Structure of Sugar ABC transporter permease:
Amino acid sequence: MSGRAAAGGTKERSRHGAARRRGRSERFAPYVLIAPAVLIIVALRLYPLALGVNFSFTGDGDANGTAVGFANYLELLDDPLFQTALGNVGLLVLLLPVAVAIPGLLATFIFLKVPGHRFFRSVYFFPAVLSPVIVGAIFNLMLAFDGPLNEFLGVIGLGPVDWLGDPGVAKFAVVGVQIWATFGMALVVFLAGFATLDASLLDAARVDGASLRQSIWHVIIPSLSQTIQFVFVTTMIGMLTSMFGLLYVMTSGGPEGSTYLPEYYIWIQQGQMNRPALASAASTVLFLIMLVVGLLQISVLRRAGRED
């Protein structure tokens, strides 16, 4: 009897040991699976970012490689072109809700199957496949002082507008073109979000007599809060880091530097002025701006979602 009891105790201990080993394996399995992605991010993103930040504290020209502390950042603050670039970043942040609302509303209409919704889906996405250089060249022709848009304004009795030559107008013209050229991808993301929307909620809202505006505000927006957060952040990143081609073709930062953005400023300092350390400092500032604005947007949207 004692032998059988001892054998039973040994088997029980071995089962407990195997269960503990399986538990440890299950706990470590997620870390093993994400390890390759983490290594790639560290090697290709975080490490170069750290090198760039470190390089921003060194000098250019004769002081190349010499530590200069915050001298590059102080020079950025005194540079009128960089101040203009930062001001334009503020303009982009203010216009960001518009850049998100347009594809959101269009996706809503497509989801509600307005007449011709299949045709509109392809038409709205078409600009997203065009190169920024092509988009810039097209709108350079359309927005020229003697272009078709001003001709149309003349026909209806409005004076011509110097769309790309007036500093107060050019920045809005370029941002408007950027929104038109890129909202197709946001539209696709919104349509993917609508695929997860519970249609019974909209049916219940219709039964209760809710208008389209009320359905959007009280049903669609709360249900798509995660999608909206994603589109906000990705649209902001695109507007701050993907407008170089459009700026270069349409205005080259002009007139009078009014359409400068940090991305274009960085290219000028690195590629034309041969000041890589100053360009690294500007890149670090741009990264911090994107990080802070992105976190603030997510915080505000989450708070709004909880209130709803």
About this structure: DSSP finds 13 helices and no strands in the chain.
